[in-house]
Specification:
Length: about 350
């Protein structure tokens, strides 16, 4: 099937992801899986309907790849620690020093999740997506250098401020670097909570100086937990914003959070989503469904809401439950547990994660 959207135009109404009309920014949409009783792009079983194609562009293959983290706004240390531990869990080696021995992490791990699917994608040189990440440097913009209300384009200006700051700054790393901008709960970003929970794209040299892949993810704990922290909080139309294991009036129950923070635990899966798509489609010319790079469906878009076997259509799938009822499917460093959506596996031609039952 050469163009799924032309054959099935009604699928457009069910897509959970949108792109920025002007900049073609690829975004994680806010629509929770429950809103659509059937999402044909969340396929946990093998499907030939998905025409995922390679469009000849590069993937992120540098090993290790340097992650540059920008904390925009006021962040507390516990929230930062959760996110930092997730990023450090992506590699088998210590994310602070890739030559260190691998930390002892129980399976299935975050590194298993990345290696079992994301690393299977290659570019035209047969180079696989990297399996090694280093948390190279962090930058704190607690002074809100561009205010508390950002446009999508101004996220690039946040990066420019981080790489030109004084006396501390991030390096410009166009060959080995990925930049991740995380906004605090009080920062409003264009389309956040209405259309997107996060997005990725690449910087414009006119703004930043060079072209580098970047992603933005917002903290939804105050603004829209039912939309962007699902399934740790329920959207109002089915549960009145109930969260953290509490039952709604219709007896639906949000999952308990594995790290005690609805907003940050919800961010983790969005961060994983955007990292996977940034690595497989960094310049919007590599791996995606369809022929139009302005409206692609990428490897994480295909599996929105699928966290375990049987997932899809509003059911997260078979996941683990902790002693206090917290839901998770992956283990990380420092004893952390995370709930992260599955990715499209190009070999199995289905959504897959290392916690699969078969």
């Amino acid at each position: 099937m050469t163009n799924l959207l032309h054959i099935l135009p009604l699928l457009l109404l069910l897509l959970l992801f949108s792109s920025l009309s002007t900049l073609s920014t690829l975004a994680m949409a806010t629509t929770p899986p429950h809103q659509n009783p059937y999402n044909p792009f969340s396929l946990e079983t093998p499907s030939q309907l998905v025409d995922l194609a390679y469009h000849m562009g590069p993937v992120v293959a540098a090993s290790p790849t340097n992650l540059y983290l920008i904390w925009y706004g006021r962040w507390d240390a516990p929230s930062q620690s959760i996110i930092r531990d997730f990023l450090l869990s992506l590699s088998d080696a210590d994310g602070k020093n890739s030559s260190s021995p691998p930390p002892a992490v129980a399976s299935p791990s975050v590194a298993d999740w990345w290696r079992s699917t994301a690393c299977l994608y290659t570019d035209q040189t047969s180079a696989n997506i990297t399996s090694g990440f280093t948390l190279a440097q962090e930058y704190r913009d607690a002074a809100y250098s561009h205010g508390t209300s950002l446009s999508r384009l101004s996220v690039q200006s946040v990066i420019r401020s981080a790489v030109t700051g004084y006396p501390e700054r991030l390096p410009l790393d166009p060959y080995n670097g990925l930049y991740l901008v995380l906004t605090s709960p009080d920062v409003r970003v264009e389309d956040f909570c209405r259309e997107v929970c996060g997005f990725h794209y690449f910087t414009f040299s006119a703004i930043v100086g060079v072209t580098v892949p970047f992603a933005w993810v917002g903290h939804s704990g105050v603004q829209c937990p039912g939309m962007c922290a699902f399934p740790f909080a329920l959207p109002e139309y089915i549960g009145g914003g109930e969260r953290n294991g509490t039952a709604a009036s219709n007896n639906l129950r949000a999952l308990g959070v594995p790290n005690g923070d609805v907003g940050v635990d919800g961010m983790i899966s969005v961060i994983g989503h955007e990292l996977a798509e940034m690595a497989s489609n960094p310049l919007i010319n590599a791996w995606y469904v369809g022929d139009d790079p302005a409206a692609p469906t990428e490897i994480a878009d295909l599996c929105v809401g699928v966290y375990g076997t049987g997932g899809g259509g509003g059911y997260v799938g078979s996941v683990y439950k902790g002693e206090q009822g917290e839901g998770y499917n992956l283990n990380g460093v420092n004893g952390r547990r995370f709930l992260v959506q599955w990715l499209w596996n190009p070999v199995r031609k289905s959504c897959f994660g290392p916690n699969a039952l078969n």
